[in-house]
Write a structure and sequence with these properties.
By secondary structure, the chain is α/β, with parallel strands linked by helices. The protein is built from eleven helices and 13 strands.
Length: 316
């Protein structure tokens, strides 16, 4: 194929079709009409002599040839964007864009208050969006830029295309109402095992560590309430004798909300590493670099006032 015959604008349409897997959604994202997007797809098919996308009940699905072209296409577009079109520096004070974090409500309790305060001072025109992407879709979301950073505990999150950076480790504590009729300043093992418990079980998060520690110690507790999120826990604890085991930072947040106290867990539980993850595509992106350096400076354990360039580890 003669590159002079290739309209580079078609590559932008091709990339968006791969991302959205829908002609109408790709057209909307590119601010073009659906007929124009369909015409661009027909030109792409003629150029590459392949259907590229096949209609299905869920939109359009890429052919093997389209999937083969996806990686070099992203590389070309990234080079154009980062090396030719991207400014060499990111100015947070004037930037008008949104940053998308993948975190569950426990992360929102711990990270968002300080992040928002920092953004209002340093990046007043930037917005924060939080999402909770299913674990099996998270790498893809990071790759296409739908998520800028994933922050939290992600067991088994392994890919050669991702970078990770440790922020801190967190232990677990038991939370209950201050005037609990049985538990004093510190909960004992017997009190823990005899009590009624609430359990939060967000998929793939650090609570799994605690549950495994219980199982390995052959300890069983009476669970009377199971929830997928933390939102209602402070109100439930304040009005009942239930006990819930949560990460330390979350327990601290609960204790500030009302009639709640926290106590150490009465047996050994491994602590969890909280990290931030980003895709290799955005390793040199100035905005992404500023974002992750901001998160590191705010939340890394014993972070100095002037944060040096941290050591990063590629996931293998």
């Amino acid at each position: 194929m003669d590159i002079a015959r290739l309209d580079l604008n078609l590559l932008v349409v091709f990339d968006m079709l791969l991302r959205k897997q829908s002609v109408s959604r790709a057209a909307e994202a590119l601010n073009m009409s659906q007929p124009a997007a369909s015409a661009a797809l027909n030109r792409l098919r003629a150029t590459f002599e392949d259907p590229l996308f096949i209609r299905s009940s869920r939109g359009i699905q890429p052919t093997p040839r389209a999937l083969q072209l996806a990686e070099p296409l992203q590389s070309v577009l990234d080079r154009i964007k980062n090396d030719m079109l991207q400014q060499s520096k990111f100015d947070p004070a004037s930037a008008k864009r949104r940053f998308v974090f993948n975190m569950v409500d426990v992360g929102e309790l711990v990270f968002l208050p300080r992040l928002l305060k920092h953004f209002r001072a340093s990046a007043p025109n930037a917005d924060i969006v939080t999402v909770s992407t299913p674990p099996d879709q998270l790498e893809a979301a990071l790759q296409v830029g739908d998520v800028d950073l994933a922050v939290g505990y992600f067991r088994g999150f392994q890919s050669a295309s991702l970078y990770q950076q440790r922020l801190f480790r967190h232990a677990f504590v038991c939370a209950m109402r201050k005037d609990h009729p049985v538990v004093g300043e510190n909960i004992t093992r017997k009190q823990f095992l005899d009590a009624h418990h609430a359990v939060i079980h967000p998929e793939g998060k650090s609570h799994e560590l605690f549950e495994r520690a219980l199982a390995e110690s052959a300890l069983a507790r009476r669970v009377v309430l199971r929830l997928p999120h933390y939102l209602a826990i402070p109100m439930i604890l304040a009005e009942s004798d239930l006990i819930v085991t949560v990460p330390y930072a979350v327990g601290q947040s609960f204790a500030k909300m009302g009639n709640i106290k926290i106590s150490r867990v009465p047996f050994d539980v491994p602590s969890a590493e909280v990290k931030q993850f980003w895709h290799a595509r955005f390793q040199n992106d100035p905005a992404n670099r500023w974002l992750r350096e901001t998160v590191f400076s705010l939340f890394a354990a014993k972070a100095p006032k002037k944060t040096p360039q941290p050591k990063l580890r590629r996931i293998h």
